[in-house]
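Protocol step 4 of 6: structure prediction from sequence.
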Amino acid sequence: MSQSKGASSSKASSKAKPAAKRRSVAAAKTVETVETLRIIPAPQPASLPEASLTADEKALSKQALELAARIELALKKDERAIALDPAAVQALMGVLCKAYSTHVDLDLRYDAFSTTHPVTPTDVMVTASGLLKAANLAVFELGMWQSWTGR
C-alpha cells in the first residue's frame, strides 16, 4: 500500500512539474508593450491681447489677480485655514470654469493654472473629481469627450 501511495505521489509530482514549467514558459513569453494611440499637444501659453480688453475688463482682471493673491496668502498662513465660505468657493469655481471654457472656445489655449501659482497633483485630482461630481459626469464621459473633441 505504501508503494502505491509512493507511486501515485511520484506520478502526481511528475505531472505537476510540466504544468509549472508550462506556466513559467507562458509567463516568459508574455511581453508587456505600450502603444501610443494619440499624442495630445501641450497647450501653448496665450493671453488676450491687451488692446482687446476694455478698461472695465482690465480693471476686473486686476481685481481678480488681487483676490487670487489675497486667497493664496490666507492659505499660506495656515494650510488648514478655510479662507473662504463654501458658497464663495462654489461661485468662484463656476465663474472661472465658464471663463476658462470661453477662452478655450475662442482658441485661447493655456494651462488652467500658472507656474507662479503652483498646484499639487492632489489639489488637481480633488478639484477635478469635485467638478465632475457637481456636473454629474463620470470620468469615462470625460475621456470620451476628450477623444471626440481632441481637447
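Step 5 (inspection) to follow. Residues 7 and 13 are 10 Å apart (CA to CA).
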